[in-house]
Amino acid sequence: MEMQKGVLARSGPLRPLAEAVERHGVIRRGSFLLDAARERGIQVVHCTAAFRADRLGTPVNTPLIASLLKDPTHMLEGSEAVEVIPQWWDASDLENRRYHGVAPFTATDLDSQLRAMSVATLVVMGVSLNLGVTGLCVEAVNLGYRVVVVNDAVAGFPEDYASAVLNHTLSLIAKPMTAEQVVALWP
User: Fold this and answer.
1) What order of strands is seen across the sheet that includes strand 175-177?
2) How many CB atoms lie within 10 A of CB 148?
3) Residue 121: what are its φ and ψ, rounded to 5°?
4) What's the burial of 150, exposed, middle or buried (CB within 10 Å: 0-12/13-18/19+)?
5) Cα(116)–Cα(53) distance, integer angstroms
6) DSSP-derived secondary structure for 145-166
7) Could you say which residues of the chain have pLDDT below 50?
8) Strand partners, 47
9) pTM as predicted
10) Of the candidates 139, 137, 141, which has an alpha carbon nearest to the alpha carbon of residue 151?
């Protein structure tokens, strides 16, 4: 979820999130799990976000979106900022991009893509626990998927809040596991 160059830029508006990702080793642990998934033929899907330069398709209906859109260059479609970080990207991966909201299912073809691949369980990693990861998990459960949250390959800010989200919200709808625990379950 949103492990993109522009989201994780140390100079961007989400710098505290990028710092939390670095402090907690999210990229390293996620890379380990993604490599193991690809070796086993498990499809990797990246959920990304972008804005069109003309902002069409992006309602300014949240304080977060309003804040991000103050910078006319933030996360523009076609820019390097919307690319998945190279440590997590492989040419065999799929990408599902959205231009609105804070979670990847609503009004995208993510559900159709997953159902076409007969996916029943999602293994979720990325950012942020504050909105994107939580929204992904809620939407997935509402659509009938089982969800595993890789608790050592996610981050949010402030970090005490991110920990509370993992322990008191996501643990009610998703199975928390470490990257190593997930890989150990795969044949």
Assistant:
1) 121-127, 146-155, 175-177
2) 18
3) -125, 135
4) buried
5) 32
6) -EEEEEEEEEE-SSHHHHHHHI
7) none
8) 96
9) 0.94
10) 137
